[in-house]
Structures are given as C-alpha cells and as structure tokens.
Amino acid sequence: MLQLNNVSYRKSKSDLVNSVSATVHAGDRLTIFGPNGAGKSTLMRLMAGIIKSTSGTIMYNDSLQTKNAIGYIPQQLALFENLTVKEHLRFYQKMTGNNSKSFMNEMIETLQLKDFWNKQIDELSGGMKRKVNLAVGMIQQPKIVFLDEPFVGVDLAAKHDMLNWLNQLNSRGITIVFVTHDWQVIRELASKMWLMENGELLQKTTVDEVVEDRVELTGVSTALDKMVSFHRT
Ligand SMILES: Nc1ncnc2c1ncn2[C@@H]1O[C@H](COP(=O)(O)OP(=O)(O)OP(=O)(O)O)[C@@H](O)[C@H]1O
C-alpha cells in the first residue's frame, strides 16, 4: 500500500529520519515505538505527505492516490475554540465532501459525542477535545490514518471509546499507523511494531514478539532496551 525506499529527512544538518526502507500493508495496525526524539513523528509526517523527504522515495498504491485517502491526526489539537462540536463536524464534513450520514452517526454513537454535541471547544476537557480531534481527522473516511499520540490526557473510559471505534474501522479495512508511549493502547490497537531510535528504523517486529520476548534487540540504546523490557510478559 505504501513503500518507503531509503527515505531520509535532514534538517539543521542532522538526519531526523535516516535511510528508512519499509512497507505498510493494507489493513495493518502498526505502531512506531521508540524514545523521545527518535524521529517517529517525523517519519509519520513523511508517510502522510505533510513533509517531503530530503532523499529516497515513498510509493503509494492507487488506492492512496484518491482524494481524502490519507488521514493525519496531529499531536497538537487543531480545533477552533469558539465552535461547537456539532459545528466542527459539519464544517469538516462539508470541506471533505463526505456526507455519509451513517458514518457520522456511527462516529457520534461510538465516541459518545452526543454528551457534548452543542458545547464549544473551549468548554471541553482535554480528553473530550482529543475525541473531537479524532472525529475531525476521521470524517473524510481515509483509507489509511496516521495518529500522533492521539490518547494524551484521555481517561480510561474515553480511551475505550476511541480504541473501540478505531478497531471497528480497522476491521472494515482502514489501515492504522500510530505513535504512542501508552503500552495499553499498543496492546489493544497494534499488531505490527517498528522500533525506532536516532532517526533509524532498527527493527520491524510484532507486539506479540516483543511482549513474549521473542525478538532479539541488537544495537539499541539502554533506554530503548528498558522501554521494551518493561513490557515483556
Ligand atoms: N523542525 C525541526 N527542526 C529541527 N529539528 C527538529 C524539527 N522537528 C523535530 N526536530 C528534532 O528531530 C528529532 C525527532 O523529532 P520527532 O518529533 O520526530 O521525534 P519523536 O520520536 O516523535 O519524539 P517524541 O516521542 O518526543 O514525540 C528530535 O531530536 C527533534 O528535536
């Protein structure tokens, strides 16, 4: 579905992403894992087409070359403080041209947005805003979605709603690529895992292999080794 060939991204004389080659397949549930500053967000932004690689190529298959096929949900909330939840979703619905009532209803239902449907964004808690941020990013019904730390500050109940919906979408074929430091989310949402450090993609593995200690980590820092070992069963 998406293939990276020796992709690098250089800024201020350093390689934030260094010669990454990998493939994302249709239907994947992939997490990119690694310490702060590893280059995870930068790699996702490259894949989502938000920034352009300095060298190397990213090939998208035909299904990703259609309008609205690629979704990106940034870590920074991109919401208008003085619009209500309803106004937000109607606005983005118009912008993306996705008028599917059933999708909108499913989203409202699963994310339980009705509870604060007519509230302005500046009246919402951080966790509620995250739900709206997710809804706004998904309204175009992308074929692949990149989510950067979508669960920061989200309580367990809201997290459950969001995970439930993302898993539903994935079971209908949407490819999910995300970054998080939240291991509970990784266990519930990811199947594949890329381990990243210092701009390099060190290992392509699976969550099961990591938690069951079936992956041999070579050339990783103590920090990454610790981050992985903490979560072994
Ligand atoms: N615009 C920029 N210019 C220069 N350096 C940058 C820029 N954006 C990010 N960086 C640096 O690139 C490196 C990778 O950043 P990135 O945000 O991709 O890492 P990350 O793995 O997502 O980190 P975190 O887990 O903390 O979110 C960091 O060292 C960061 O300081």
TrEMBL record:
Organism superkingdom: Bacteria
Classification via Pfam families: ABC_tran
Single GO MF descriptor: ATP hydrolysis activity
Keyword Disulfide bond: no
UniProt-listed SUPFAM superfamilies: P-loop containing nucleoside triphosphate hydrolases
UniProt domain ABC transporter: residue ranges: 2-223
Alphabetical keyword list: ATP-binding, Nucleotide-binding, Transport
PROSITE patterns found in the cross-reference section: ABC_TRANSPORTER_1, ABC_TRANSPORTER_2
Coiled-coil intervals, chain numbering: none
Protein name per Swiss-Prot or TrEMBL: ABC transporter ATP-binding protein
Nucleotide-binding among keywords: yes
SMART domains referenced in this protein's UniProt entry, alphabetically: AAA
